[in-house]
Amino acid sequence: xxxxxxxxxxxxxxxxxxxxxxxxxxxxxxxxxxxxxxxxxxxxxxxxxxxxxxxxxxxxxxxxxxxxxxxxxxxxxxxxxxxxxxxxxxxxxxxxxxxxxxxxxxxxxxxxxxxxxxxxxxxxxxxxxxxxxxxxxxxxxxxxxxxxxxxxxxxxxxxxxxxxxxxxxxxxxxxxxxxxx
Length: 181
Known about the structure:
There is one protein chain. The protein is of the alpha+beta class and 181 residues long. 52% of the residues lie in helices and 13% in strands. It contains 9 helices and 5 strands, in the order αααββααβααββαα. The strands form 2 sheets. It has a 3-stranded antiparallel beta sheet with strand order 3-5-4. β1 and β2 (61-66) form a beta hairpin. α1 (2-15) crosses α3, α2 packs across α3 (32-48) and α5 (84-96) crosses α7 (112-121). The N and C termini lie far apart (72 Å).
């Protein structure tokens, strides 16, 4: 079984993202039951090591990752080389994505074109052509989630028209705020 556990370790290392058991079995060329046994052996082995890595189960599958107590090294050894504009564009992609490049440029301005190139080159964003449009879709990659230690992004609610206050209430609220200042 040590051979299968080592193969699973190599697969998790090379893929660099959580993998479901079925995918690991496909890559290892064996059945799910054997992978489950191999994973248990590998997890047990890592649990008894004094190293910096661990094998963990996430909602997306199993992953080989850095132990929490070593996360501080990521920022100092692999600094994020992004300007404020690119970070804001990345945030827009993360919160609104997948989003068409055209819509993103409307939202962030023409500088978004350069930001997208920079984010793609650093691996935080993936860009793919839409079949029915000339604009590409952009979305964050697994590297984004890993680097910023985010499991899941919040779903944005669509904007709804503001409720109108009954006549007189808006003036009362303004007076109350003025009096409070």
